[in-house]
Design goal:
The complex is a heterodimer of chains A (about 210) and B (about 170).
Chain A lengths: L2 H22 L4 H8 L5 H22 L12 H18 L3 H10 L4 H27 L8 H5 L3 H22 L17 H4 L12
Helix pairs in contact in A: 1-5, 2-4, 3-8, 5-6
Chain B lengths: L10 H10 L1 H8 L7 H14 L7 H7 L2 H24 L9 H6 L4 H22 L3 H10 L3 H18 L6
Classes of the chains: A mainly alpha (about 210), B mainly alpha (about 170).
Chain lengths: ~210, ~170
């Protein structure tokens, strides 16, 4: 595929991606921070629904022979260290790399600083990569997927895992109905802790 | 029925639509959805204007050329356009800084928020590049392919995120 057609396709897919991210509200900082403080579960609902649908469609693509898998190599140390740092960044940014762009599109001013920080972080990593490579990023277990480990055909395992996720989502919805988590201004911000539990309200702890 | 003018769609419906985006990614581009490697493509391209030697770093060179890299750059630009369009249609265009930050940080100061946003963005991409993926590449795509490294990376991401979020004020 030529670069031009790849770019046009990317733009078209991105518009759909961004439109759906905005409608899902998962780009809202209060949704992301609320999930990480375990008081709003919208992010987990959207994320696991995306994984479940992905399992079904990728399972079908593999079962029909239309496509193979494109998994990343498992490099345990890098996965753990990188994941921990990525998570810390997501909490402070109130965004993931993809939703940063959705925040910019929706109009949040601070997301431009997240973007600048992200580009700087990627650039610093690029310069350090030759040094980091031998200590952190080399070796690993290869493109390890669960179906290969268990010796079960990918589609069956994918459909089974998708069914498990759907069952989990049904339980999650019973526990925390999504409409109650959207918030009055559709930003996932729920009434402050004081209003919910007056006795437990911290009084000017000085933390910031 | 979900409408384009709605402020919010069901998270299950919206999430499933995100999963369906894997179909064009797999069939037409031959890759899974991802977002964070585009930050390398863009920042290394910008840096190459002042430091052409960056092209000699193999990792940079791998991200500078080729249809897949520029497909992903276009994808994240499209995300901004799509979110703008959706917010316009529903009348939920945002301004300034989200109110949640005053609660989480205990201050209205934009400077504090801007510094923290920059730091957050920096850590986010440094971490994503070390782990070779973010919530899209490892999360949506890696888990949907039952990739064991992605399960570990996402578990670590949530652990790091939950621990850090609890250092802020409760929202």
């Amino acid at each position: 595929m030529s670069i031009l057609s790849a770019v046009l396709l990317g733009l078209a897919m991105g518009v759909v991606f961004g439109f759906v991210l905005e409608k899902s509200r998962v780009f809202e900082p209060a949704v992301i921070l609320g999930q990480l403080q375990l008081r709003n579960f919208l992010m987990l609902k959207i994320f696991l629904s995306g994984v479940a649908a992905g399992l079904v469609v990728i399972g079908l693509l593999v079962a029909t022979g239309l496509s193979g898998l494109h998994p990343k190599s498992a490099i345990w140390t890098a996965d753990v260290v990188g994941g921990l740092i990525l998570g810390a960044g997501i909490a402070l940014a109130g965004a993931c790399p993809g939703t940063t762009l959705a925040q910019i599109g929706a109009g949040y001013r601070d997301a431009w600083f997240t973007l600048a920080g992200g580009l700087s972080g990627a650039l610093v990593f690029t310069y350090l990569e030759p040094v980091l490579h031998p200590v952190l990023l080399a070796g690993g277990a290869g493109k390890l997927t669960l179906d290969k480990v268990l010796g079960v055909p990918f589609p069956w395992l994918a459909f089974g895992f998708a069914a498990l996720l759907v069952a989990g989502l049904v339980a999650l919805e019973r526990w925390r109905p999504w409409r109650a988590e959207i918030g009055a201004n559709a930003d996932g911000l729920l009434p402050p802790p004081e209003a919910r539990a007056p006795a437990a309200a911290p009084v000017a702890t000085g933390r910031a | 029925m979900p409408a384009f003018t709605d402020r919010a769609w069901s998270p299950y419906f919206a999430g499933a639509l995100l999963g369906l985006l894997q179909i064009p990614a797999f069939l037409l581009i031959g890759t899974a959805l991802g977002a964070s490697s585009s930050f390398v493509t863009v920042s290394a391209t910008l840096a190459s204007f002042v430091d052409p030697a960056i092209r000699e770093i193999e990792y940079a060179a791998r991200h500078l050329a080729g249809a897949k890299n520029w497909w992903q750059v276009a994808l994240v630009i499209g995300i901004a356009l799509g979110a703008f369009l959706s917010a316009k249609l529903s009348g939920t265009v945002r301004r300034g800084i989200a109110p949640v930050w005053e609660r989480a940080l205990g201050t209205k100061s934009p400077a504090t928020r801007f510094v923290l946003a920059f730091l957050g963005g920096f850590l986010m991409l440094a971490g994503a590049r070390i782990a070779d993926g973010c919530t899209s590449g490892h999360g949506l795509s890696g888990m949907a392919q039952l990739a064991l490294g992605s399960f570990v990376a996402i578990a670590a991401t949530f652990a790091g995120g939950i621990a850090t979020a609890h250092l802020l004020r409760r929202i």
